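Batch manifest line 274
LIGAND: pantoate
JOB: complex structure
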Amino acid sequence: MQVVYNFKELNKALKIESNKTIGFVPTMGALHDGHLSLVRLSMQKSDFTVVSIFINPTQFDNPSDFINYPVTLENDVSLLKKCNIDLVFIPEFKELYQNEKKINIPLNGLDQVLEGNHRKGHFNGVIRVLNIFFQLIKPRYVFFGEKDYQQYLIVNLLAENHFNNIEIILCPTIRLQTGLAMSSRNIKLNLEQQKIASKIFQTLNYCKKHFSFSKINELEKICFDKLKDFSDPEYFEIRNSITLSKEIKKSEKYRAFVAIKLSNVRLIDNLAIN
Ligand code: PAF
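JOB STATUS: finished
ARTIFACT:
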């Protein structure tokens, strides 16, 4: 496994492998089994797997969230080495953004709700950094976890509009036995808090069970109140799986989306409910 820190080393390594199908897993480090499941899928589907580790400042609306984001670089590199991936890219902010060519894509309002509403500018930062990575790495496949479902929808639009050759692959959320979705931020929770946080998944399942015969606003409120019993919920919303609209049409697919703060750690999750 090669570890590269700049464009020159990256380009050199990719040039040698130019005939191979590249699978790419972008990460912000603090790797867990969720990330490793994406890595394994990439290794199955591609000839050459690249993982990036970069905590992208442009996608944080809150400076203290950025400063407190977990960093476990040494452990991350050793986990990736054990997986036997081909290349880890650990760039620096200055070089990554220095020749950035900004792009515009029609997001059809996908960035205005849920995470987009609660973390202003977040998706703009995600698009900026992925646009740079996609241009540099030229992957055939890019892998994202279902926990960040809204991000997946938006990245799909980035690929459709600017990177025809890239297929965005959605991979299942990996959960602890308690149901808590794996997240880099879980490191910041003690065992007791992790147990409490498993109530997020219970609430999502409650929503799924009651979706077909409840009034949507009432069900959202019941679920929000359940979260209030143990955390500071930001939102609990039921939305169309493709458009993220709140309008309910019987024939379409819906998801419940949730964000809470537990002891100042922000957690998100979502579940397909029909
Ligand atoms: O999902 C993440 O970890 C980040 O948003 C990503 C895709 C690595 C971009 O910084």
